[in-house]
Structures are given as structure tokens and as C-alpha cells.
Write a structure and sequence with these properties.
The longest helix has 22 residues. The protein has 27 helices and no strands. The chain has 467 residues and is mainly α. The chain has a domain of 100 residues: Tetratricopeptide repeat domain (Serine Threonine Protein Phosphatase 5, Tetratricopeptide repeat), CATH 1.25.40.10. Helix 16 packs antiparallel against helix 17 and helix 24 runs antiparallel to helix 25.
Amino acid sequence: MAKNYKKKTESKVVKLFEEHLRNKTSFLFEIEQFEEIINYYSVHNELKKALAASQAAQSQFPYSIDILILKAQTLSGLDQDQEALSTLELAENLQPNEPEIFMLRGSIFSIIGEFENAIEEYEKALDISEYKDEVYHYMGLVYQDMENYEMAIEYLKKSISINTQNENVLYDLAYCLDITDRKEESITFYTKFINEAPYSSLAWYNLGILYVKMSQIENAIKAFDYAVVIDDDFGSAHFNLGNAYLQSEQYQKALNEFIRTMDIEGPGAELYFLIATAYQHIEEYELGLKYYQKSSKLDSLYHEPLFGAGICLGKLDRWYEAVHFFNKALKLHIENALYWRFMAEADYKVGNLVSSLDAYEESAMLNPTDFQTWLDWSFLVYEQGDISKAITLIERGLYELPETAELHYRITAYFLANGMHKEALKSLENALVLNFEKHIDLLEFFTELKMQKALYKIIEKHRKENL
């Protein structure tokens, strides 16, 4: 009720003021009424009207510090900085110990880039202000604008030590600590801060962001989880918790967090994309496809959801549709080697053999260090009966990736299929040395039991000799 009454009162006072101006009649208002009128115009960004009101107020109350400060604020908002500073000088002559004068003057100096003068004004305010945390905060911001992040951090820490509830300071401090890449120091600070203010959801959130940057995902999950327990409506914390779960392959938990984020913040292209990604990983391909398409509709230049849609369609054996989506993704990001590799598979599935081979060539050219491209491309050629070319392709891959066990095992298989037993034994030895456990790939390549037994004997002999 009080709030509604206040709004009605403001409207009535403003209406009366404008009526006097329009009719050019004389009027008298109380200081509080003028303050109300000026603040009303400022809030509604009608600064010229706010200035007219402050000038009228000054003519009636020439010695009111509050009116002079409001006038100076209005002048500053209108980019009339020198006039604002002159008004503050007048206010200081009337009341030299009013901290708001120095705070506003410091703000104006900061806006016009006179940072040293701004610091001097804030230092004057610091001596007499009750709200030292606020003064320290503004000093920290000036140093931040000066790109003197060490001093900014010092003053922001002073501010937060006085008022642990000021989240704006925490945001600014997090930025400065991040830009100076002081991760270990930042973790120490936030840990100490949380000990003093354990229910600061923002502090837990900032700590989580730091842990993500240090690849400590489990610690990040704990920090984000505390943040959302304290504040269940903290959308960014739910979002980042979802991302952390995604990185740790806890896909159902990630999905839950992304859906909660959407409940709080509404839909978005990136959010739909992440929801789709989670569905894809839990093998809910129809739902993954649905949300990838939703994401793409919100941002037609976002190529990742188009690619994701293609993957889901492939998993659903809807390869013709997959080709369509991979094509759309490639039109937006034609130099993406991964997209070309999946395009090659989709083309092969629908019988476009020539297009598939071309796509593998493109993928290998763009990223020759993706061993999967060499494996898939060579296998397609192998299936067509051209074993020599399959061997050549793996040799090209080994030139780029000489210590990749998967390639050594595969060329072993091709050598054996081509009757090149001496070369096969040499490649198998290399593969076993690089990664013994991967020999399962070779055994699975051959379905013939006789070949599997022969290979197993060689592998067992190697294992015993290298125990």
C-alpha cells in the first residue's frame, strides 16, 4: 500500500510542477517535494526536466546542499561536467564536510578520465564518510579503469572486508583477479571469505569459476552446488553447474541443471544446445534432435546445433536427413574437419561413395592429426577392396601421428589382409609397445577365429617377454 501511495504522490507533485511551468505561474514547493520531482525525472531519464526542476529549486533554496548535489548529478548526466564541478564547488563552500560532494566529484573526474583527481576526491571522502566500504569500492573502480589491477584488488578487498554483502564488489574483484591470472591467490581469498560469509552464493559461484579454469571440475561442482543450495534462483550458478557436470560426463545431472536454468532465465540458443547435448549423451536422440532444432531456430548462424542434429539423425539411422544437416553446418563453418568427417560417414551411408571419399580428403587436409579420419577413410577404401590404398592412407596418418597405437594396429590388419606378414609383425610390435591394451581393436577387426587365435599367440608372447 505504501509503495502505491508513494507513486501516486510523485505523479501528483510532478503533474503540479509541470502545470506551473506550462502556465508560467509562480509556485512554492518544499525541499522534499523538489527532491521528489528531480529524482522522478532522473529515474525516467528526463534529465533536461530534472535540470529545470533543480534550477527552480535552487532559486528557492540557494543554500540547500541536497539540491546542489542533485543539480550537479543532473549536469553530469547531461555531460555538462564543468558546470557540475562548479556547482559542487559552491556546495563545498557552504558545507565543506559533506562526503557526498567529494564522492560525486570523484565520479565526475573518473568519467572524464582525470583519474588522479578522482582518487584525491575519494581520499577526502574516506576521511569523513560513514560508508568507507563504498568509498573503497569506487577507488578500486578508478584503479581498474587505470588498468592498475594490483591497486584495484587492494581497495576492493578493503571494501569487501567491511561489507561482505556487497555483491557488486565481489563481481569487480573477481574480474580483477581473473585478468591478473592470480588463480591460487584468488582461491585462497575466496576460501577465507567464505569462512567469514558462508552464505554468499556469489562467493561460492566465483570459487567454482576459478576451479573450472584450473580444470578442477569436482571442486567446481561442489562450489556451484553450494551456490544453488543457498540461492536456488541463481541461474548462472545452475548453468555453470550443468556445464561442470557435462565435463565430468554426468549427463543426467547436467540436463537437470540446464532445465532449471531455463526455468529461471528462459530459453536461449546456447541453453537449448546444451540441453540437446545432454540428451544426445544419454542416448535420447529424438529429444536431442528436438532441442538442437530449437537452438538453430533461435540463432540461424549457430552451426554447432546443426551438426548435433546431424549426429542424432545418424544415430536414428535417418542418414538422408543427417546429410542435409551436416551440409547446413558446413555452409556456416566450411573449414571444420570434424564436420567433414561426419559428412563423409553420412554420404557413405546413403551410397554417395565419391562424395564420401572427397569429404574424408577434406577432413584430413584440414586436420591431419585426427587419427579417426585416417581409420575411417582407410576402412572405406579397404571395404571397396583396395587394400594397397588403405595401407597408403594409414601410412599418411602415421607420418602425422607416428606414435598413435590405433594406426599401428590398423596397418597391421591391412598388412595381414594383403599377405604382408613380415611388415605386419613389425607394425604389431610397434603397436604393442605403444599401447598394449589396444590390441583388442586388432582382434575385433578380424572375425575369423583362426586369425584371432594366431594373433592372440603373438600378443601373448609379447606380453610374457615384457612382464
